[in-house]
Write a structure and sequence with these properties.
Elements (H helix, E strand, L loop, with lengths): L2 H11 L4 E6 L5 E8 L5 E6 L7 H16 L4 E5 L4 H9 L45 H13 L3 E6 L4 E3 L6 H18 L3 E2 L8 H7 L4 E6 L14 H8 L2 H11 L4
Parallel strand pairs: 3-4, 3-5, 5-8, 6-7
Antiparallel strand pairs: 1-2, 2-4, 6-8
Length: 259
């Protein structure tokens, strides 16, 4: 079984609202499942935008089922595999591959100071290529359009590895206070420290913060001592540290203690 087969089976068997946000460059569907207890707050959690980080797809499925059992408030859209084309390449050809089928690193293809990141390249390949222009890829356009349609209050982007959380992207004032409060709550829920991303740009988190003005976190899972791609056998321990993330983010946003 492949990762995408596992995600597809999960999607088919999921008892609840679900759908497709769009299709990849190779016409694979990008699935989502929805778990809702109240109209607000709304959260999008997206996973495996980097191909070799497909361990996060298993985390997504575990979190979605757990939140459906234990959740109390909020609406959450889980997108387990944003980059199934890249996952296929990582599974069958190049285990360290991060990009999509076009050789574009999807997490530097968003319109948020696009092309200004320290590691950005203009050479198509396995990682860091920014694309010809922001949203040049079908996957980033699908995630953009879905986000604009859903209008979330918070987004979570799951990556690996390092067990740390990134929350900043030039926000100021009350928005910065809000985002720090939510990030701190997630840090407490996971035990992961808050970190600065340095000179990075063009990510989904960056776009959500700068262009949409919403809270957005990138959460890196898996111990730094592990090698890419992190094996499925580590999914359980990763989930145990991230089990309460969605609830913590929703609670922190709802408390509005930054005002």
């Amino acid at each position: 079984m492949s990762v995408f087969s596992d995600v597809s089976e999960f999607y088919i068997n999921f008892q609840g609202k679900k759908g497709i946000i769009g299709y990849t460059e190779m016409k694979r569907p990008v699935y989502y499942v929805k778990v809702s207890f109240s109209e607000s707050p709304v959260l999008i959690a997206q996973y495996a935008i980097h191909a070799r980080e497909y361990i996060t797809s298993y985390l997504a499925m575990m979190q979605a089922e757990d939140f459906r059992r234990r959740g109390r408030t909020g609406t959450v859209y889980f997108i387990p595999a944003v980059n199934p084309d890249g996952i296929f390449i990582a599974e069958t050809k190049d285990p360290l591959y991060k990009a999509n089928a076009n050789g574009v690193d999807l997490n530097v293809n968003f319109d948020a100071r696009w092309g200004s990141g320290a590691k950005n390249t203009r050479i198509r390949g396995a990682e860091n290529y920014i694309g010809e222009f922001p949203f040049s890829e079908s996957e980033t356009r699908a995630l953009r359009d879905f986000t604009l349609a859903v209008k979330p209050d918070i987004t979570l982007s799951y990556h690996c590895k390092g067990e740390e959380i990134y929350w900043e992207f030039f926000q100021t004032g009350q928005k910065r206070k809000r985002d720090f409060y939510i990030a701190r709550a997630v840090s407490e829920a996971t035990g992961y420290p808050l970190k600065s991303a340095g000179i990075s740009a063009g990510g989904y988190k960056d776009w959500c913060i700068e262009k949409l003005g919403i809270s957005a976190l990138t959460i890196e899972v898996g111990k730094d001592s592990l090698s890419h791609p992190i094996g499925k056998e580590h999914a359980g321990s990763i989930f145990s540290k991230n089990r309460n993330v969605v609830g913590a983010a929703i609670t922190a946003f709802s408390e509005e203690k930054w005002n």
